[in-house]
Amino acid sequence: MEQNQNIQEETLDFEINASTVKLHELRKKQKPFYGICAGILVSIAATSLWILMASKYKLSWMAVAVAVGIAFSIQYSAKAVDFWYGLVGASLSLISAITGNLFTAVFIFAKYKNIPSSEVFSELDISTALSLLKALTQPLDYLMYIGVAYAGFYFSFKHFKPES
User: Residues 157, 81: contact at Cβ < 8 Å?
Assistant: First the structure.
């Protein structure tokens, strides 16, 4: 009987430090719906702005700025501290980067061929889009995609470091 009581005391005896309590409180304040909605809205707005700015030139570095904007909007609107917010931020950032590069490629192609970009968009299907992206993608763009995914992941949530 006494041995059973000692086992129960040992299993229930664990230390809750201040950082664990703080992390639990921060997790209770998270708002996933707001974070995802803000990420999507900023993704659409920032990618649209990028497309308008880059309608004549290919500005791949803008993708990193878009990714940082998406990530910070997720972090601040969701009060994010969990890892999965980083995955959402990286995904939205990559989708925005690929979309921005595709639209920029369409605008550059239309200007090169002296046809309206609306005509190119009307004829655009998956295979055409992939071949257009492949034709205008440079090796540095793949490095940019990695940077975009990293920025979208890293800045999408607060990195909580427990006290030692």
Answer: yes
Query: How far is CA 71 from each of CA 2, 7, 11, 50, 76, rounded to the nearest angstrom?
Result: 55, 47, 41, 16, 9
Residues 94, 47 contacting (CB under 8 angstroms): no
Return the structure tokens found at 115: 């046809």
Contact present, 66 and 93 (Cβ < 8 Å) = yes
User: Minimal CA–CA distance to 80: which of 17, 162, 20, 155?
Assistant: 155
User: How confident is the model over 10-60, as pLDDT tens digits?
Assistant: 544 456 777 777 777 878 888 899 999 999 999 999 999 888 887 666 677
Q: What is the residue type of 101?
A: N
What is the model's pTM? 0.81
For the chain, domain boundaries: 19-154
Question: Per residue in 66-94, pLDDT tens?
Answer: 999 999 999 999 998 889 999 999 999 99
**CA 142 to CA 39: how far, in whole Å?**
23
Residue 153 in tokens: 């992941």
**Burial zone of 137 (CB within 10 Å; 0-12 exposed, 13-18 middle, 19+ buried):** middle
